[in-house]
Write a structure and sequence with these properties.
Distance between the termini of chain A: 85 Å
Strand content of chain B: 5-15%
Oligomer: heterodimer
Largest sheet of chain A: 12 strands, mixed
Helix content of chain B: 40-55%
Shape of chain A: elongated
Number of helices of chain B: 6
Largest interface: A-B, 34 and 26 residues
Number of strands of chain B: 3
Largest sheet of chain B: 3 strands, antiparallel
Order of helices and strands of chain B: HEHHEHEHH
Structural class of chain B: mainly alpha
Shape of chain B: globular
Radius of gyration of chain A: 34 Å
Chain lengths: 904, 117
């Protein structure tokens, strides 16, 4: 495998901007250090930024987080520890300035508190979201160099989103031929039954090819791990590696466990090693690993001369310096060559790679990035708000600055004072934000249902998060303090102070020269962009969460049953067992009606197949999901029957083959609900089934599939009795409050019928719905909070701007009153100004929103980027808040007593 | 203001940096990669930390800037190359001896021995 030549293409605009930013940050170091090492640091920046692990938005985040943390610490260290020859900042002076700022800010509590609260809102938002992003996207996975791991799934060239398994020989071909990998292994992840003295324990397991432990780079705790020598002969390697937890619980931490024999799925396997407790395989919770060669244990055959049985997927490690994209291209090339050699089985097929982290997080990845942008936007609004407040305060201090200047202080010193005020306030806000942030984060983690986030995600505000936040706070403070600082430095020294006062605040009518009003317009614009983005996301979630699941999850639980032994071999015996198990379980107190089927919605375990719409016509191929159900299953789940009839007890083995189809299948392929009845579809090599009924579409699979994914394949239902499965689900209606010992009682009941059957995976379906939608609901809630905060801040900005304007134009108002202006006229003048500011801000915001929201397009579902409802709603909200904000200043305008104003 | 650490003590990151220069002179990023490789990613030096450490080591006379070795690629030549001086080698040796004595002590052995098959 040759290394890629270094990338010599010219740097992109984004990279040049990033370099510019880095150079600015380098400027913060002490002068001598900067002059000596500055260039080297920029070279270092390019080398580090170009590495694979920093590709993509997540990679960029990871890079900047590390860079900012390192920089903040080093800058502080550089200025405080080393002997400064030409110090940039003088410490003793700094502490004096600091104390002076604190004193003067304490004398204006209302103003100081207002700025602190404003900044706290923005900083806390960023802190909380960044902690979540860090824990999920940036922290290491529970594998060695986990970000180089990718999952390999079989798919078709034309629709890569349609993932299914790969066949054993196909995977072997990929493992041996595909370039760009430092190892690939095949995996399948069943649950195996460990036979104990008093019953059967289901153990989450993984059947793995010989390369597996090498790819994942695991070291054994005891004994050895599986290797290529355990994967040669089909069925010839009865060995198992167990997890530390299983060793503890079922083998009593026996120091001589290596060599002991354990019975899994009726097979005797010899324990050859133990893995440490922090390794859970690719499922993150496996406790047993068996060679793939032993796949007959789960009814699969590793010998597949037809290459047609696709039940395997793969885990691979990208080679050093190889990106996911180039590895994917390499895999595609191998698949293409394979398709040419074996067109009948591999035409149009290939493998798709997906980063392990991305697969584990699912939609959470996108949701977190959306939240991060939202938090950033809120911080921007808060900063602008603080800047506005500081400008107003600066305006009222112009005489103080003028006196300072007259006494000989330089412009820089005066500007520095204003900046110091901003920094002090920002520091207090940061402290407050840290407290609120920690509390909020704990609240969120407690609220999230178990399993909503993968186990290895542990949100916390750690050292580097704090360092990065400090950097952000410093930037925010400087931004907030910049305009007041400039304003103070610019203050005119000549002329009477009164003139200085009015010119610094902007005369009536020439509002665009007033920095404060510009800030208000800017803040309204940013708030609008933020609100529109959030509104679109909220609509998307509403669409997704609002989709009818198609069945009644309330009070419904399910448990999986796996048959092994003789009963599993005979189809008739399976059906008989299912019926008896159902009856036995239904007899339990606290359990209501019971039914059974090959799988239940939202619990996985589904299988896909193909049917022909027109028998013998290969072009009419449709992919669909198969479900084998008992006669009362549909009714039990509360799925509506739309046409025709349900499956009955008469549709038994030997009777004519019948099937039900979902509404989506009927409408997409059979010409509608009514037209589907009576159609004959070819469902096997020679099997034809008649459609006897159509049922409502059910959400069988993940409720929140990846944002932006296309339509899923439809579902069809067959009588269980005609094709009974050895693994199936009991669906039971359970009286609330009876869960505590339900599983043991279920096991007892089922063991009565047949002791070799294992019962496991008891789940409450309503909880499943809650858990799968938790991410969406949390994001919507957080976005709503951000939106409300942004609206509030925008309102505060408008309010303070107008209050300021009214307060400083008392003379003009008094004159107008003396000349006969009525109260309503005065109020309207204020209202007009407020509405004007808001309108201009809204216009600018809309323009920016149109441009930026194209970036959101991939994440939206059921709503377009230019959705009028969202825009109108946001505009209406902004207008309402602005009008509210102008009300008090408008009232105040009419209450100015003319004589006192004219006198002042 | 005097440096907070006394001359006698080398931080773990500093030891790693000096170790990277034992065989051949390296430029800044090369040192970072070598440290990352040796510690399997556990120590990841940022540019600020690294160059501050290099500055300190230079001031203490333990490393020096040298001509880039002839084998270096054109890209690499753009930065300065650092080499271990005799004083640096001696300091490193002293530090590693201390570490070795620590690691081979009975207490340390008992910790390192746990968890092995």
């Amino acid at each position: 495998m040759t290394r890629k030549p270094p990338d010599r293409s010219p740097p992109s605009l984004l990279l040049r901007l990033e370099e510019r930013l880095f150079r600015i940050l380098v400027w913060l170091y002490p002068g001598s250090f900067r002059r000596r090492f500055g260039d080297e640091m920029v070279t270092f920046f390019h080398a580090e930024r170009g590495r694979d692990r920093h590709r993509g938005p997540t990679g960029a985040l990871r890079f900047w987080k590390a860079t900012l943390a390192d920089l903040t610490a080093a800058v502080v260290r550089g200025h405080t520890l080393d002997l400064p020859r030409e110090p940039v900042m003088q410490l003793t002076d700094l502490s004096r300035h600091f104390a002076r700022s604190v004193r003067s800010l304490r004398r204006q509590p209302a103003f100081s508190i207002a700025v602190v609260l404003t900044l706290t809102v923005g900083i806390a938002a960023v802190l909380v979201v960044f902690a979540l992003v860090d824990a999920a996207l940036l922290e290491a996975l529970p594998f060695a160099d986990g970000d180089r791991l990718v999952f390999v799934q079989g798919t078709t060239v034309e629709d890569r989103a349609d993932v299914r398994g790969a066949s054993v020989p196909e995977m072997r071909e990929w493992i041996e031929q595909a370039p760009g990998f430092a190892g690939m292994a095949g995996v399948v992840t069943p649950s195996l039954n460990l036979v104990l003295e008093d019953g059967v324990l289901p153990v989450p397991s993984e059947l793995v090819s010989g390369e597996f432990f090498d790819v994942l780079r695991v070291a054994p705790l005891k004994g050895r791990l599986l290797g290529p020598e355990d994967d040669r002969v089909p069925d010839g390697h009865p060995v198992v590696v167990i997890g530390e937890a299983l060793w503890e619980e079922q083998f009593g931490r026996d120091p001589d466990v290596v060599g002991r024999v354990a019975r899994f799925n009726e097979r005797e396997l010899t324990v050859v090693g133990v893995v440490p407790g922090d390794f859970g395989g690719v499922t993150l919770q496996a406790q047993a690993w068996v060679p793939l060669a032993m796949a007959s244990m789960i009814g699969r055959d590793v010998v597949d001369p037809d290459w047609g049985n696709r039940w395997l997927y793969g885990i691979a490690r990208l080679a050093e310096g190889v990106s996911l994209e180039s590895a994917q291209a390499g895999l595609d090339a191998v698949a293409l060559e394979l398709a040419e050699r074996r067109p009948d089985t591999n035409e149009g097929r290939t493998g798709t790679l997906r980063a392990a982290r991305s697969l584990y997080l699912g939609t959470a990845e996108d949701l977190l990035l959306v939240l991060l942008v939202g938090a950033g936007g809120l911080l921007a609004v808060a900063t602008l708000n603080a800047a506005g407040l500081l400008v107003v305060k600066g305006g009222s201090r112009t005489d103080e600055y003028a006196i300072c200047r007259a006494l000989g202080a330089s412009r820089a010193a005066v500007a520095g004072r204003a900046l110091m005020d901003a920094l002090v306030l920002a520091a207090v806000a940061a402290g407050l934000a840290w407290l609120i942030g920690r509390w909020t984060l704990d609240l969120i983690v407690a609220w999230l249902p178990a399993g909503a986030l993968p186990d290895w995600v542990e949100p916390a505000i750690d050292g580097s998060t704090l360092l990065v936040t400090c950097a952000i706070v410093a930037v925010s403070a400087l931004a907030a303090g910049l305009i007041p600082a400039l304003q103070s430095a610019r203050g005119d020294l000549t002329g009477p102070l009164r003139d200085v006062r009015s010119s610094a605040r902007g005369a009536a009518g020439s509002w665009w020269r007033s920095p404060q009003q510009l800030l208000v317009v800017g803040e309204v614009a940013v708030a609008l962009v933020l609100l529109v983005g959030m509104g679109l996301m909220a609509r998307t979630f509403e669409e997704r969460l609002g989709v009818d699941v198609g069945f009644e999850p309330a009070g419904l639980s399910s448990a999986r049953i796996r048959l092994t032994g003789e009963i599993a071999q005979d189809p008739a015996a399976r059906t008989a067992f299912a019926e008896r198990a159902r009856a036995r379980v239904a007899a339990l107190p606290d359990v209501g009606a019971v039914s059974f089927g090959s799988d239940v919605p939202l619990r996985g375990g589904f299988s896909a197949s193909r049917l022909l719409l027109e028998p013998e016509n290969p072009d009419s191929l449709v992919r669909y999901y198969v479900h084998r159900v008992a006669p009362d299953f549909r009714e039990h789940l509360g799925v509506e029957l739309l046409a025709g009839r349900d499956i009955t007890a008469d549709d038994a083995a030997g009777a004519p083959r019948v099937m039900l189809v979902g509404r989506d299948l009927a409408e997409r392929y059979l010409g509608g609900v009514e037209a589907a009845i009576g159609r004959e579809l070819q469902v096997g090599r020679e099997d034809v089934a008649t459609v006897v009924g159509v049922v409502e579409t059910v959400r069988w699979r993940d409720l929140t599939a990846d944002l932006g994914a296309g339509e899923d394949d439809p579902d069809a239902y067959f009588p269980f009795a005609q094709q009974p499965a050895p693994v199936f689900e009991l669906a039971l209606r359970v009286r609330p409050g009876s869960d505590a010992d339900l599983l043991p009682r279920l096991r007892e009941a089922v063991a009565d019928v047949d002791p070799s059957a294992a019962v496991f995976a008891l789940a409450d379906l309503e909880e499943q719905v809650v858990r799968q939608t938790a991410g969406d609901r949390l994001t919507v809630t957080i976005l709503a909070v951000f939106g409300a905060a942004a609206l509030l801040l925008a309102g505060v900005a408008v309010y303070s701007s107008l209050t300021n304007a009214v307060a400083h134009r008392r003379r003009e108002i008094a004159i107008r009153q003396a000349l006969g202006a009525s109260a309503p006229e005065l109020r309207q003048a204020v209202l007009r100004q407020g509405a004007g500011l808001t309108a201009i801000g809204a216009l600018v915001g809309c323009a920016v929103a149109f441009a930026l929201n194209r970036l959101l397009a991939d994440l939206l579902y059921g709503v377009s980027t230019l959705d009028p409802v969202t825009y109108v709603a946001v505009l209406a909200a902004l207008l309402a808040v602005a009008l509210l904000a102008t009300w008090v200043p408008a009232l105040r305008a009419t209450r100015v007593p003319p004589q006192s104003a004219l006198r002042s | 203001m005097s440096p907070r650490r006394s001359h006698r003590e080398l931080s773990p990151a500093t030891v790693q940096i000096l170790l990277s220069l034992v065989r051949e002179p390296l430029h800044g990023y090369g040192i970072k990669l070598e440290v990352e490789r040796r510690t399997e990613g556990l120590i990841s030096l940022g540019s600020g930390t690294l160059y501050q450490a290099l500055q300190r080591l230079e001031q203490q006379g333990l490393i020096a800037v040298v001509e880039p070795p002839p084998a270096a690629s054109d890209d690499a030549r753009r930065g300065r190359f650092y080499a271990l001086r005799e004083e640096g080698r001696a300091r490193l040796e002293a530090e590693l001896e201390l570490l070795e004595r620590t690691v081979s002590s009975p207490a340390a052995r008992s910790i390192l021995g746990r968890g092995r098959a």
